[in-house]
Design brief:
This is UPF0398 protein GH754_18700. With 185 residues, the chain is of the alpha/beta class. It has helices spanning 23-40, 54-65, 88-100, 116-128, 144-153, 166-180; strands at residues 3-7, 45-48, 72-75, 103-104, 131-135, 161-164. Helix 1 links the parallel strand 1 and strand 2 (45-48).
């Protein structure tokens, strides 16, 4: 496995409405804990479309991990200027991640035209990936369901899909709280 596509919820689907929300750090830690073993097993490229939430947080993590690991970040948005209607703090985060990515190119050199562009993006990511990592909980469907439906429809029936679930997030929170409170000492 060389290429890993990562996706998941947008911030509002997690009831996160600003970049200073403390839950983001727990989510990022859970993502990091899943990425490191995959990178150590040979993943070379992390591919994201750069959507706000899980994908941009993953981008930040990969950029940090580059200090220790030989891993590259590819950002392939579905269309040009996808961030133009986002809040300013999300736009700044997007620009920061994009400016440091090893590869950046919109899938099509057009502005937003319709929802079909998101399907195209999902299909492209699936076609270019050897595995996928999705932050997703079946009890809270949200937008990741569209990506997962495209995985089901794809020709890659044996494509590994790894999940970060609400249980994984709870476990990460518990472990961080225990280690920071001196519980483990």
């Amino acid at each position: 496995m060389k290429n890993l596509a990562v996706t998941g919820y947008k911030p509002m689907e997690l009831n996160i409405f600003n970049n200073s929300d403390k839950r983001i750090e727990f989510i990022k830690e859970a993502i990091k804990r899943r990425l490191i073993p995959l990178i150590e097993e040979g993943i070379e490229w992390i591919l994201i479309s750069g959507q706000a939430g899980v994908e941009l947080w993953t981008g930040q993590i990969v950029l940090d991990l580059k200090e220790e690991y030989d891993v590259k970040l590819g950002v392939i948005p579905p269309f040009m200027n996808q961030e133009q209607r986002w809040k300013e703090d999300q736009q700044q985060l997007y620009q920061s991640v994009v400016s440091q990515a090893d590869f950046f190119r919109p899938l099509v050199e057009k502005e937003y035209e319709g929802p079909y562009q998101f399907k195209q993006k999902d299909r492209w990511l699936i076609a270019k990936s050897d595995a996928c990592l999705v932050l997703y909980d079946e009890e809270n469907k949200g937008t990741p369901i569209f990506f997962l439906q495209e995985v089901e429809k794809s020709q890659k029936k044996d494509l590994p899909v790894y999940y970060i679930t609400s249980f994984d997030l709870e476990e990460t929170v518990r472990e961080i709280q225990e280690s920071s409170s001196g519980f483990m000492e």
